[in-house]
Amino acid sequence: MSRHLGDRVIGICDSPVGLGRRIARVLGADPDRAWIDYAGLNHLGWVRGLYVDGRDELPRLLADPELLDSFEEGRLFGAELLRSLGAIPNEYLHYYYFNREAVRAYQEAEQTRGAFLRDQQEGFYARMREPGTPALATWDRTRAEREATYMAENREVAGAGEREESDLGSGGYEQVALALMRAVARDERTSLILNVRNRTVLSALDADAVVEVPCLVDAN
Q1: What's the pTM?
Q2: Which amino acid positions bind Mn(2+), per UniProt (predicted)?
Q3: Is 82 part of any domain?
Q4: Which of 11, 114, 129, 210 is 20 to 30 Å apart from 90, CA to CA?
Q5: Is residue 155 one of the residues assigned to a domain?
């Protein structure tokens, strides 16, 4: 698509945004004022720095075991690995760094994620057929359960416990999409982590590769 439509093709994901916001909150920074140095591919990226007023606060996080243990990715990957990387990986990289443990956990699980989602969605539809069922509230409960059980096997392997309320506050895809549309439609210059053509941003990858990196977005 990007080969034929060029810069009109933009991919979005809420994982980098959620990760950046969690790190900012742990550091006591305003997520809306922090600039996140993020690089990689979709579902395969790392936070390499988090800047507040021009100062990189990530080294302070990596040096503090209590801070690292206070958010989801810190518990998922562990302080030792994060310090060796000098970065915070996207949660999906748990499948790479701990591949044997993750595969074993999913093989031993009572139900696959796909089967869980199928059954949950069927239950939602069944409740919606009942007269007087509040649609939005019912869907919100369904989605909350879906988010709370997301990557549960990975967290169990890591001993990371249940997802906390603060871990769920990424805003979702809709927030990223709306922020992008506002920036373009209103010509409001905004920094967003998006999937775009690489060009020369990451020298190890081809210019036409689609990378996930911070972008400045406006009407142009």
Answers
A1: 0.87
A2: 13, 43
A3: no
A4: 114
A5: yes
